[in-house]
Structure formats: structure tokens, C-alpha cells
Amino acid sequence: MYKFVIEGGIPLKGEVVISGSKNAALPILCSSILSDGICRFANIPRLKDIDTIFKLLGILGVEAEMDDENHEVTMDPSGIKAFEAPYELVKSMRASILILGPLLARYKRAKVSLPGGCAIGVRPIDLHLKGLAKMGADIDVSHGYVLAKTSGLKGDRIIFNKPTVGGTENIMMAATLAKGITIIEGAAREPEIKDLADALNGMGARIEGAGESTIAIEGVDNLSGVEHRVIPDRIEAGTFMAAAAITKGLVEIRGVRLDHMAAVVEKLEEMGVRIMKSGEASVYVDGSGKLGPIDVETAPYPGFPTDMQAQIMALACVAGGASSITENIFENRFMHVPELMRMGARLEEKGNTVFVRGIDRFQGASVMATDLRASASLVLAGLNARGRTELRRIYHLERGYEDIDRKLKTLGANIERQVGGI
Ligand code: EPZ
């Protein structure tokens, strides 16, 4: 087990390069199952979750050759001979469920462990299963597994009563090889869905409207190989913007898609953070000004992303005045609250809203990471804090942030990875 030891109070300065998007890469890697040819993907982040999906795809028979140096991977799906995702892997990463649609579409069968809940909520997959059943899959859920088979998927109209990122991705992938046309209504609009559609269309799929709430997919007989570069990670970029702000630093963030970050940029600017384009895909973030309070409600894209909720809460803790943070997507995504309070934050949880009263600075303390984005908020608090912060169980962080300690060190942070801290 490893921990981070952070001495806070250093304004971050310099430039940082954002890695590829975890939440675009995961479905795109699964989409290789649909292909008849070799798939080459660039800008793949080096993360624990990416290792997990490679392991899972390897069990199915997909060969993945990762070039760590260049963040590129070559996938050869021609050797697929198994169609089961075991509990051990799925329980460690829910996104494993994204092999369900592709396996059903290409091989007409799949056995995938139910993901089970995770720290932030129950996270059911009922919408995924209902959509696939409507397209002609026989779905049986027993002994903790989804058993699915079909004589051949058929296009249909799938209506989601609430946006689901994974559900939209599973149905969209399944529909690429289904007979006829599939219309998804109430689709999630996240940029990662558009990126997946771009990769699939590169393989010869016929998808229109990805990124909007209605997506049309005309099924084709087969998909070829593809070369595709994954979009940058908008949540990592948002986390580094918050890091510049919480340390009163001046940081250039490179390799960002500002058009994917409008809601986050708007809220940070409202707090008094200055964000200025400094190039085609880079921004300057100036956190030297005084931070004011903010009211945030998380919502499906293009609203404020739930994956930035913990990070902007940490920032609001050391902004002046009174702020409120409302979580509308997941039912248990406030586990960072008690840990931030151990560092001196003044927070009051009432239902799905946390009321914040600003303090001057955090106090360093020993804290525990509980889930990916909660851990990020504790790193932010430690960077701001008076004194030393020890963050335990940093494996949560390593699921979604590539080399975060190295990147922060290049910006001048005093952060060390050390053994210990159960
Ligand atoms: C994706 O999870 C992301 N993960 C999450 O990022 C992100 O927080 C989430 O979308 C919302 O933006 C990946 O892309 C790998 P959903 P996903 O289906 O697809 C409910 C991170 O930190 N729901 O959009 O699982 C669900 O319970 C992770 O990088 C159903 O009720 O999210 C939730 O309340 C965390 N039935 C809401 O919908 C279903 O069948 C949104 O979930 C599916 C979802």
C-alpha cells in the first residue's frame, strides 16, 4: 500500500500536459471486439483501469500490445474465443460491463458478472439490459451474472428515461452490427460518447447524432480495423485547473479541449479564477486572485460534471463566503466530506446538498482516500494546507490519474509517494 505525503502552501507554477481520457478510452478499447481488423488507438492513458480492461479483453482473446512510451496500443481481436467477464475483474471496475453490447452484437453471446455497487452508489445496469432486450437479446440474470444470447440483434427505438453514459455506449456499440436502424432517445451527451462514435465510424459504422440526445445507428455487416486518437481527459484537466486555483498558482495546462469543459470553466471563473486560452489546445489558469463562493448542481453533460464535484468542493472550502454543492447523479458521493472536515473544512451535509462556509486554509492531517474523485479532492486540500497531509490508499487515485504526483512535482508541489498507510 502507498500513501502520498504533501507539504502544502506552495503556489503551483509551470506547465502540465493532460493525458488521454479514461472514460473515452475504456469504451473505445471494448469496441475493438466488434472489429474484423487490427485497431490502433493513440493517447491511451497509463492507468490501473486501463490495465484492468486489457486484462479482461485478454481473457476474451483480444491481444493488446501497449507502447507505454507513446501511449499507443495495437489491438488484435481476431483471437476471441471466450465470452465471459469474471466477477474478480468486473467487481474491480464497473466499466467491464461495456463488453456486453459488443460481444452480443459480434458473437451473439456473453456472460458478464453484475458489477455490484461501488463506493459512490448502487449503480444499476437495468437500462443497459432493457435496451439490449428490446434489440432481441435474451437476458437472464442469475447467480450474480448477466447471461445474454441472441439469434441476431435487430435495430429498434431505445428510450432512456434518464441519461446513462454506459448504457448509451453499450446500446450504440451493439447497434453497429444489428440488423436495421436503432434510434436512441434520451442518450447521454458526454464528449466521450462522441469520441466512441468517431472511433466506430472509423471502423465503418454508420452513427449520426452522437453527442446529442438522439442518436441514429444504421447496422452494417461488419466493421474493419481503425486508427483513432482518444480525446484529452476533461476531468483531469478540471482537476489541474482547481489545483492551480487552490494554491494561488499560475499554471499552463496543455492538450485540453476547452469546448468539453464549458460548465467547469464557467463555475471556476465565477469564483474568481482567471482562465485564458494560451494556444490551440492550452490554457493559462491564474489562481492568484481572491476566491469567492459558488453554488454548484451536478447534472448530465453539458451540465456540471459529477466527476468534478469533490474537486470544486475542496476549492469552495477555502473560498470566501458561503457555497453550496448539490449532487444529483449519484446517491453517495460525499465521502470526501468527513475527510475534508478533518482538515478543517466547515461543511454541513443536508440530503444531496453540502453547505460550505469558507475558511482561510486547510490544516494538514492524515486522511483516507475512498474513491477516485474524493481522493483528488484530498490531494487538492493537501496542496493548500498549512503543514503536512498524509493521504492513504492512493490506489483509488491511480485508477484515474496518470502519474499525478510526478505532474504535480513538475509544477513545484512538495508531494512524495511513500510506502505505508493501510
Ligand atoms: C460514467 O459512469 C463514468 N464512468 C463515471 O465516471 C461518471 O461519473 C458517470 O458516467 C456519470 O457521468 C465511465 O465512463 C467509465 P451512468 P456510468 O450510467 O456510465 C443511473 C469516474 O470518476 N443508472 O451515466 O456508470 C446510475 O445509478 C467515473 O471517472 C441507472 O439507474 O454512469 C447513476 O445514478 C465515476 N441504471 C446515473 O444513472 C442504469 O442502467 C448515471 O449513471 C445505468 C445508470
Overview of the structural elements:
This protein is of the alpha/beta class. 31% of the residues lie in helices and 26% in strands. The protein has a 4-stranded mixed sheet, with helices on one face. A 4-stranded mixed sheet has the order 2-15-17-16. The chain is globular. The structure holds ligand EPZ.
In short:
The chain has about 425 residues and is α/β, with parallel strands linked by helices. It has helices spanning about 20-30, 50-60, 85-90, 100-105, 125-135, 165-175, 190-200, 235-245, 260-270, 310-315, 335-340, 370-385, 395-400, 405-410; strands at about 1-5, 15, 40, 65, 70-75, 85, 110-115, 140, 145-150, 155-160, 180-185, 205-210, 215-220, 225-230, 250-255, 275-280, 280-285, 295, 320-325, 345-350, 355, 365-370, 390, 415-420.
Distance between the termini: 6 Å
The helix/strand class is alpha/beta
The Cα radius of gyration reads 21 Å
Strand order of the largest sheet: 22-23-1-24
Overall, the morphology is globular
Number of strands: 24
Give me the number of helical elements. Answer: 14
* Fraction of residues in helix: 25-40%
Q: Would you identify the regions where 5 or more consecutive residues have pLDDT less than 50?
A: none
What ligands does this structure carry? ligand EPZ
The biggest beta sheet is recorded as: 4 strands, mixed
What does the oligomeric state look like here? single chain
Mean pLDDT reading: 96
Q: Beta-strand percentage? A: 25-35%
